[in-house]
Every structure is written in structure tokens, then in C-alpha cells.
Amino acid sequence: MPVWSPVRLGGLVLCGLLAGCATGADWQSEVADRDPRDARCQARLSAYDAAVAEAGVADAGAARVAGFPYLRVDRLLASFDDELDSPAAFADWVTRMRELDGEARAIEAANLPVSERDALPTPSGVDPAAAVNACATRLMQRELLAEQGTGPAREQLRSAVDPPDHYLSWRRALGLYPLTRLGLAVGYNRWKAGYLDTFEAPFATMPAEAPLVRYVPPGRPREAAVAARWWREAPRSPLGFVELEREELLRLAAHHAPVFLVETRGHDDRFGAPYWFAGPEGPLPLVDTSRPVADVRLSHTRFEGELLAQLVYTLWFPARTRQGALDLLGGRLDGLVWRVTLDEDGRPLIHDSIHPCGCYHLFFPVPPLERVAVAADADLREAPLTPLSAPRLAAGERVAVRVAAVSHYVEHLGVADSRREVAETRRYALEAVSTPPDFGRRSLALPGGGRLSLYGPEGLVSHTGRLERFLLWPSGILSPGAMRQWGTHATVFVGRRHFDDPRLFEAAFERPASSFAATSDVAASDDHSRGQPPTLQEEPRP
After folding, report:
1. Within its chain, how far is the Cα of 255 from the centroid?
2. Which of 21, 36, 173, 416 has its CA 20 to 30 A from that of 538?
3. What pTM was estimated for this model as a whole?
4. Using an 8 Å Cβ cutoff, are 351 and 399 in contact?
5. CA distance 153 to 138
6. Least confident interval from 145-159, 236-250, 380-394
7. In terms of Cα–Cα distance, which of 406, 411, 283 is closest to 353?
8. What is the distance between the alpha carbons of residues 498 and 489, in angstroms, rounded to a whole number?
9. How far apart are CA 162 and CA 301, in angstroms?
10. Exposed/middle/buried for 306, CB within 10 Å: 0-12, 13-18, 19+?
11. For residue 285, how far is the Cα from the chain centroid?
């Protein structure tokens, strides 16, 4: 079972037990009037937010909710605002927004300079993050959950929750987007025409333009029926979110992790962990390639009425090596984000990938899921690019992803074959970045002491800007080509699309009706003995 945070546990308990509700028009004033401690909490949050803004260490992973300073929202949670038909669902929704805010505040507090953190109005001996989060949780419980999800507070919250948008409309207006998008579309189509050629060759015999290094994940895939049964019995929240502890997430991620075959010309084609280096003008982001590691997070998406879990693997390369002084695309840090969306039985439904800049979004559906026609296929917008279907895997098999040298483009997809000749084989580790207290790259040690997020207040990684930003700014994307934080990835220059759009796949992919019967047959074939729930640590039966 997962470790329930005090925020969520307290929220669900209060939701079920408290019956009173404010009915006045000014619900915040009514609640504050009942206890002066609420006003002090509001003041503490305001002082904390001012210090974070002044220090420039705000976390951009989730958007703030106007009027509710103790909540933050992402695109997925925003999609539930008109579907909260029970007190339990409302409490789950609110406490998840509180957890996003609480996580961000803990990271911001860690990244504050010591002098500014010590100056916060915090009781002696109390951790500033713990103090401000205790206040925030108190306000959430009194202002929202005490009303059981009804009344003016709920209505104001639902109207205040807007999905964040990482396209700047004013830039599109200033850049005459209705005209400049024609040039953006031409450039994209030229890139696409040259890029897709690599997917036409047979995967097993595709030649390499540089020595191949095979990166293998930890462990080996478990027996399919055991994994499916474990997945169906994994605990879920009232809204359907899968609840996993850190070790469970890492086991699941190891089960589905791909093999990466990376063409390697030099140091910039080896991936590892980002860190801060003391540069002459301040800290610079570098990558330690001595230990290959992939960041792993658990996310969710919506598809055909279900809330589906996703495993997101992020590789960091030291750079995209510049090919000349006027190279538009080269620069410090590069990467690859590989995502596996799981179906209702915990099997891969679709794979997709981007670079950490949000660029080069590719989709690889697993049959019987198939790409269907969309309006963008016939106009200037960038339609979901689907070079080929992902392979259906037999027992013990893994997906293999071919990665180009220098550009780190995904070149092809197939089934991993350990017999293939490569220059070197390395095992990569998995590091959880979405389960507290593992906040990944959002709070890294500085060489001279203190801590700093890899990502700035706008979600960008400093010193990773590309020259292409001077040409692509009319798209409305802030600093196109720069590396950026999860939750801030705009993925098309023509049109509007985000990597974490909760209905991303529904628009362009469908399962044939006949596939549902096949899914049920596979699930029914699991004859694992009753009793203790299976785990991914179990070995396949002989």
C-alpha cells in the first residue's frame, strides 16, 4: 500500500466527517473570522511567496490557482473540474492540488539562500517549508474541505482552475503568426521529409553511422500475467490515480524500460545525471556521464473514459555538439524523453517521445491501437507524427530505441536483441523524480554551498538557449530549443499542443472494437493463485 501523505489523508477524513458549510457570499472572510490563526497563515504564505519571488527560485512545474495560494494545478487536474460528482472525488482533486503546491514549496525552500530562508516568519526551530505547508493545509481544510465540496468556495475554485498554457499569445500577435506560420510549416515539413527515411529500413539490419553503445535497464521483464494481476490490484484514488511507493514505481519502470542503442561519436553522446559546475560567471549545468541514469516519473493521461498511468524516462546528454558557429540547433545540454502509456491491464498502449525542449514529438502506437485521420492532417498544423507502430512484445522482450549521434533523434524502434554486435554495453540506473522526497533535478547542490533547481522560474534550463529561438519566436514558445521542466513542454510550432495534455491521444488514436474482447481474454488468462497480491518481484513460474 502507498504511504498516504498527511495532506491527502487529512483531506479525505475531513471530507467524510465535517458537515458544516459556509453559506455567505464572502466565504473566505467567514472562515477567517472564526479563527485569527487563518489570517496569520495567509500572512505567512504571502511572506514566503514574496521571498521566493525575490530570490528567483519559484518552481514552474505547476500553475498557481488565483485566490487559493495553497493550491497549484497541472493540465491533468484541471481537466477534472466539471466531473467532481462526489465528496471523495472533490477531496482527492483538492488534496492533489495541495500536494503539488506542497512539493513545490519544499523545493523552493531548499533552494532559497540561507539568509532569506532564515528571515522568513517561522517559529524558532521549525523548518520553513514544514511551517508554510502546515498553514497551507490548514487553509485548504477550513476553506474547502469543511464545505464537503459544495457552496461558493467550490464554485469559485472551479472557475479559478485554468489549465496552464505555455504558448505566449502576445508573441504570436507581435510576430504576425497568421503569416509567419506559413514559413514555420514549410520548415517543419522539410525536416519531416528528411527525417523519416531512417524508419524505412529493417530495424535489425539498420546500419550505424557511429559506434553503437547499448544501454540496458536494471533487471528483466517479469512474466506478463503476474505483472497484469499486480497492476489491476494496485491501489487507486477516488479519481483513479494509481498510488505507488517509490520502490514500486522503480520496479514497474524497470519492467517496461527500453534498451537504448545510441550512436556514439564522443562524450556528448553519453547520457548521465545533470549537476551544477562552478563556471567563471556563475553555475553552469553539466552532465556526469560516468554513471548512466534515466530519470523516471509516474504521470497519468485520459483515454476512452479511463485514467491511464504513464512511465516517463528522461535521458540527459552533455550537449548537442555544435556543427559550426552558425549551428541553429546545437548547444549545452540535450536529452531524450521516452514515455510509455499503460492500458487498463498495465500493458503498453502507446509509446511517444520528445526532447526536453519539447521538440520532435513522435508517436508509436502498439497494435491494435491505430492512428486515425485528424483535421491537422489536411491543414498547416503539425499533426501527430507516427513513423511506425511499436512492436508487440513476447515474454521477456524489451523495446529497443535507436538514437542518433549528435542530434539524439529517435531513428528507429524495434525489439531488443542481445546478440546484435555493439561497441559497448552499459547498464543504466533508474532514478525516481516524482515521489517525495525524490525531487530529481529541481534541487541540486551548488559547488560553493546551497542548492538550486536545474530549471529557472519559467521552467527553462539556463545556458541551454539555441540560435533557432531568433527565428522561431513567432510560434509563441518561450526560447524554442532550450531545455525545460516537466509540465512546460509545448510541442508544436504550428498549432497548439502540450506534451502533458490529458487528452493528447484521444484526438488521433483509436482501438478497434474487436480489441476489447482480446484485452479481456488476456486478463482472464491470469491464473495466479489467490491470496497475497502479486508483486513485480515474483519470478515467472516454470
Report:
1. 19
2. 416
3. 0.89
4. yes
5. 15
6. 145-159
7. 411
8. 6
9. 17
10. exposed
11. 20
Q: Is the pLDDT of residue 357 over 60?
A: yes
* CA 434 – CA 441 distance, rounded (Å): 11
Q: How far apart are the first and last CA of the chain?
A: 28
Q: Is the pLDDT of residue 21 over 80?
A: no
User: What is the rounded CA–CA span in Å between residue 489 and residue 167?
Assistant: 10
* DSSP H or E run through 80: none
The C-alpha cell that represents 161 in the structure block: 482552475
Amino acid (1-letter code) at residue 356: P
* Confidence band for 519, pLDDT divided at 50, 70 and 90: low
CA 392, 393, 394, 399 dihedral sign is: positive
Polymer length in residues for the chain: 542
Pick the residue with more confidence: 5 or 175? 175
Q: Using an 8 Å Cβ cutoff, are 301 and 505 in contact?
A: yes
Per the listing, cell 542518433 goes with: 404
Of all residues in the chain, what percent carry a pLDDT higher than 90?
71
- How many C-beta atoms lie closer than 10 Å to residue 235's C-beta? 13
Q: What are phi and psi of 377, to 5 degrees?
A: -65, -25
Segment 441-473, tens digit of pLDDT:
999 999 989 999 999 999 999 999 999 999 999
CA distance 406 to 408: 6
For residue 24, CA distances in Å to 27, 29, 254, 539 come to 6, 9, 52, 60
Determine the pLDDT at residue 431.
95
SS3 of residue 196 by DSSP: helix
